[in-house]
Amino acid sequence: MSEEQDLKSNYSADNIQVLEGLEAVRKRPSMYIGDTGVKGLHHLVYEVVDNSIDEALAGHADTIDVRILEGNSIRVEDNGRGIPTGINKKENKSALEIVMTVLHAGGKFDKDTYKVSGGLHGVGVSCVNALSTDLKAEVHREGKIWMQEYKIGVPQYDVKEVGNTDKRGTIVTFTPDPTIFTQTTEYKYDTLAGRLRELSFLNKGIKLTLTDEREKLDDGSYFSETFHSEGGLKEFVAFLDDTRTSILAEPIYIEGIKNGVPVELAFQYNDSYAENVHSYVNNINTHEGGTHIAGFRRGLTRTLKTYADKEGLLKNVKMEITGDDFREGLTAVVSVKVQEPQFEGQTKTKLGNSEVMGSVDVAVGEALGNYLEENPKEAKMIINKVILAATARAAARKAREMVQRKSVMGGSGLPGKLADCSDSDPERCEIFLVEGDSAGGTAKQGRDRNIQAILPLKGKILNVEKAMEHKIYENDEIKNMFTAIGVSIGTPEDNKALNLTKLRYHKIVIMTDADIDGSHITTLILTFFYRYMRALIEAGYVYIASPPLYQVKKGKDFEYCWNDAQRDAAVQRLKGAGKEDSVHIQRYKGLGEMNAEQLWDTTLNPATRTLMQATIESAAECDHTFSMLMGDEVAPRRDFIERNAKYAKIDA
Ligand code: 0RA
């Protein structure tokens, strides 16, 4: 039988199975891609890109081109071998069709490939196919172009040859199904760029390009960036710290295979007080850490301590030095590749494989030991920093104890400025952190006192990115937030494991004016949460209120509007047959301009308001953004603000 005939025959039992598989994906998409919101939508792209990364890691591709097309379709092209198109004897179908339509078929045809990339859900491109209204697969292989198209995962024709080529590679173009992604089908350039940049650092040598073809620039071209790192994690650490002041001339870089586990890591010290350790397993961000991080910490502490003791650098040091002191001002990225990873923890992002701990520990011990011997000047700088951290920690401990003692003595211990709610079930309760006393007053009048508490904050809160730890516990606004919210003050290090059992509200809502100062205050508060109460964000308890920008009014009729397009539409609606100037537009410059009733209607009322939930999409990206926005250097901050200016509203 010729291949052509073979392709056309036998649409039988197999196909029914395929349809059932893809039907399952469409019925319960969240089981396969996590959710059907913004995250899941972007996950589709990562799933397709991961296949190309695998091909590159196998040594057959070095370029991946991602495009956001008009209408929010996505096109991913690589220069790999191309998905095989020949007939698979057992299934009697083209391998391409099997890869695109059978759940978890991805690895079937290439057992030898060292396959370790693959998203958290690692479900394969067939899921993307099932969740797309249209998908087209194009393969350039052995001089020929092959093609197949699908609708919601169903092939529209057999794989066919459509031309000749001198290229190699796979091109997948898909359109996410709006009946699945009901929240939005709009791709965020920055989200995709963040992940591709991360992938370029994690997989050095691969060139990843992202182009936004939804909108032409003034010169007729499209906005496009290429992410390509030859230095890998070393460059990743330099990128994360680009707005901080480094202690070492270059990050310390370690790469090797220990007990069969490929370990790659890089770290640097900076003059800040925060610890920023990011970890990855098979290119997946392990937010909750795990055995690889435990191994890293153990290796770091032991090796530095041994060196310091041997050189007599600690002989005049009185206070105790803890593991935390070795990690103050540390920025690190740890990446391991594990054949059969076990993921544990609340969000399944904690590595459980116990053998990995030793691998990382040994890798750090060997390489760092050598580094310290060869670079005594740098070694001394690191140890001095550790001693300084221990000294500061003693001061911080004192300040923290003072706060806690005071709160024990002062009656309920709740801040005087807090207008608490009467309900005491945290699940129903909300606290609004409000900018300024005047807006705080309006909010107190307008709220539902059963379930809504108000804590007014004085102007700009302390920038925790730049302050020393003990200053943070001495700051009134920050103390008030800790005590009102009901979490005990922890150290930055245990912030990830914050004790939430005494949490008093399950919604913590930041409410500031809709202007530049307001967004600065929101950023300051988010930075504080990110550095000192990250568990609150991770558990989904932190929200941002969205007060309206305009009230459009004609006689007794009025509408609230949150953006200019809504405002223009409201003007048209209200004006009706009347004149334009019969409609009055009020631009709210701040929360203070609304009365209690208006604030309730637009921003507080749970039935009608919109809250934005704060999430951590990529901890590394967040870290970089926060340090840049809150740090000392002005130029990168100005660039960021200019790039994001179209989202911001400049006050007239
Ligand atoms: C299995 C076998 C071979 C290539 C691939 C998979 C492959 C898959 C994807 C997905 C996106 N891009 C890809 N590139 C290649 C090739 C086996 C061979 O040629 O011997």
Automatic annotation (TrEMBL):
The keyword Nucleotide-binding applies. InterPro entries: DNA_gyrase_B_C (IPR002288), GyrB (IPR011557), HATPase_C_sf (IPR036890), HATPase_dom (IPR003594), Ribosomal_Su5_D2-typ_SF (IPR020568), Ribsml_uS5_D2-typ_fold_subgr (IPR014721), Topo_IIA (IPR001241), Topo_IIA-like_dom_sf (IPR013760). Pfam families: DNA_gyraseB, DNA_gyraseB_C, HATPase_c, Toprim. Its EC number is 5.6.2.2. The record marks K460, N463 as: Interaction with DNA. Residues 429-548 form the Toprim domain. The keyword Repeat does not apply. GO terms for molecular function: ATP binding; DNA binding; DNA negative supercoiling activity; metal ion binding. One of its GO terms (biological process) is DNA topological change. One of its GO terms (cellular component) is chromosome. Mg(2+) 1 binds at E435, D513. It is an enzyme of class 5 (isomerase). Its cofactor is Mg(2+); Mn(2+); Ca(2+). Binds two Mg(2+) per subunit. The magnesium ions form salt bridges with both the protein and the DNA. Can also accept other divalent metal cations, such as Mn(2+) or Ca(2+). It is found in: Cytoplasm. It catalyses: ATP-dependent breakage, passage and rejoining of double-stranded DNA. Mg(2+) 2 binds at D513, D515. Keywords: ATP-binding, Cytoplasm, DNA-binding, Isomerase, Magnesium, Metal-binding, Nucleotide-binding, Topoisomerase. Heterotetramer, composed of two GyrA and two GyrB chains. In the heterotetramer, GyrA contains the active site tyrosine that forms a transient covalent intermediate with DNA, while GyrB binds cofactors and catalyzes ATP hydrolysis. NCBIfam families: gyrB (TIGR01059), PRK05644.1 (NF004189), PRK14939.1 (NF011501). A type II topoisomerase that negatively supercoils closed circular double-stranded (ds) DNA in an ATP-dependent manner to modulate DNA topology and maintain chromosomes in an underwound state. Negative supercoiling favors strand separation, and DNA replication, transcription, recombination and repair, all of which involve strand separation. Also able to catalyze the interconversion of other topological isomers of dsDNA rings, including catenanes and knotted rings. Type II topoisomerases break and join 2 DNA strands simultaneously in an ATP-dependent manner. Belongs to the type II topoisomerase GyrB family. Few gyrases are as efficient as E.coli at forming negative supercoils. Not all organisms have 2 type II topoisomerases; in organisms with a single type II topoisomerase this enzyme also has to decatenate newly replicated chromosomes. This is DNA gyrase subunit B. The lineage of its organism: Bacteria, Pseudomonadati, Bacteroidota, Sphingobacteriia, Sphingobacteriales. The gene is gyrB.
